[in-house]
Write a structure and sequence with these properties.
This protein is of the alpha+beta class. The chain folds into two domains: 139 residues, 60s Ribosomal Protein L30, Chain: A (2-Layer Sandwich), CATH 3.30.1330.10; 163 residues, PurM-like C-terminal domain (Phosphoribosyl-aminoimidazole Synthetase, Chain A, domain 2, Alpha-Beta Complex). It has ten helices and 13 strands. The strands form three sheets. The protein has a seven-stranded mixed sheet, with helices on both faces. A four-stranded mixed sheet has the order 3-6-4-5. It has a two-stranded antiparallel ribbon with strand order 1-2. A hairpin with a 7-residue loop joins strand 1 and strand 2. The longest helix is centred in the N-terminal third of the chain and has 18 residues. The protein binds adenosine-5'-diphosphate, thiamine diphosphate (TPP) and magnesium ion.
């Protein structure tokens, strides 16, 4: 491995001092300019849990680490700024591996972050590990002038809206794990969704700026589980019209040719990093207008109901469906 000092110098070289950080890499802690960052999020990626070295390149892993954090800031209706990066790496690791992670973070910053926001490194930490690789990123951001969009705020009558598509990344995992056997070269988008998910950075910031959603979350664990978080925080129920969910052509192919239960993938799969929100009916024309202007993939997938109704998921034929689990659970034997 490269020494930690070389690695820190490399990070500083690749990601120059961010605006809003008065003292960045090089001191015991960072000093932030007052009044700039008012959002903070953190996500961890553990080898074997979130990625496998033989499924993903280090560039993919770096990309996904930034994307998952960008997605959380987007879900607050804000924009990203400085990140803090912790890497626990085995001492015998090829030095190309962390270098690849940094490249992947850089690629994702270029591809997913609009020019109006600058993403760079404010600091971090490095350690050896005798176990799996562990990467943690803290990302600071700025709420929109209209204020942050929270998970609480949904009221009965609001529509439930999905920006993007779910199920593809989980399909990628079933293919990579060999659970579903496919021919080489097939299902490129499912594999990409697992390896290099997008993040709705621009959309999240614009939705926050225009105050469109009453509540918002990013779908990281599974649509049903993450909708559940909005419902709990807002103390409401919901009817999720699963028949309105978009069916990606690769998912349709997986169902038709491999008999995969794609409804389960779409509703509970996880790793999607799309935005799920609730919108008062009066503001629905606004999102349709934004969708048209920005070519967003927007789907009206249900309604917020009174709390006593709980969450009802209506399947393809309009009948209620249930799942043993609404999404990914970390502390479950598998
Ligand atoms: N170890 C922890 N200590 C304190 N708060 C935590 C911890 N883990 C998660 N949280 C908080 O719980 C909330 C939900 O976290 P999480 O399930 O990871 O959401 P997300 O899918 O948005 O990353 C967040 O507010 C997060 O900061
Ligand atoms: C090797 C591997 N197996 C399984 C998965 C699927 N998976 C792992 S964690 C997870 C949920 C998302 O991770 P989490 O740490 O809960 O993200 P957060 O909700 O905090 O953003 C999913 C769907 C994966 N990404 N990689
Ligand atoms: Mg998290």
């Amino acid at each position: 491995m490269t020494t930690e000092f070389e690695l820190i110098a490399r990070i500083a070289e690749l990601f120059g001092a961010p605006e809003g950080v008065a003292v960045g890499i090089g001191d015991d802690g960072a000093v932030l300019d007052p009044g700039r960052f008012d959002l903070v999020t953190m996500d961890t990626m553990v080898e074997g849990v979130h990625f496998k070295r033989d499924w993903s390149s280090p560039q993919d892993v770096g990309w996904k680490l930034l994307a998952s954090n960008l997605s959380d800031i987007a879900a607050m209706g804000g924009g990203p700024g400085a990140f803090f990066l912790s890497m626990a790496l085995p001492a015998d690791l090829d030095p190309q591996w962390p270098e690849g992670v940094l490249e992947g973070i850089k690629d994702a910053a270029r591809a997913l972050v609009p020019e109006s926001f600058e993403v760079s490194a404010g600091g971090g930490d490095l350690s050896a590990t005798h176990g799996p690789i562990v990467l943690t990123m803290t990302l600071m951001g700025e709420a929109s002038p209209a204020g942050p969009v929270l998970r609480r705020g949904a009221v009965p009558g609001d529509r439930i809206v999905l920006l993007g598509q779910t199920g593809l990344a989980a399909a990628g995992v079933s293919i990579l794990s060999g659970e579903v056997e496919v021919e080489a070269g097939q299902f490129a988008e499912a594999l990409r969704a697992h390896r290099r998910p997008g993040a709705q950075v621009r959309a999240g910031a614009l939705l926050g700026l225009y105050g469109v959603p009453s509540a918002m979350i990013d779908v990281s664990d599974g649509l049903v589980q993450d909708l559940g978080h909005i419902l709990k925080a807002s103390e409401v129920g919901a009817r999720l019209e699963a028949y309105s969910l978009p069916h990606h052509p690769e998912l349709v192919l997986l169902r038709e040719e491999h008999g995969v239960d794609i409804l389960k993938l779409m509703l509970t799969g996880g790793d999607d990093y799309e935005l799920l929100m609730t919108i008062p009916p009066a503001r629905m024309p606004k999102i349709w207008d934004m969708a048209r202007r920005h070519s967003w993939d927007v789907h009206d997938i249900g309604e917020v109901r009174s709390p006593d109704e709980g969450m009802v998921v209506l399947g393809p034929d309009g009948e209620p469906v249930t799942f043993a689990q609404g999404g990914y659970r970390h502390f479950e034997a598998r």
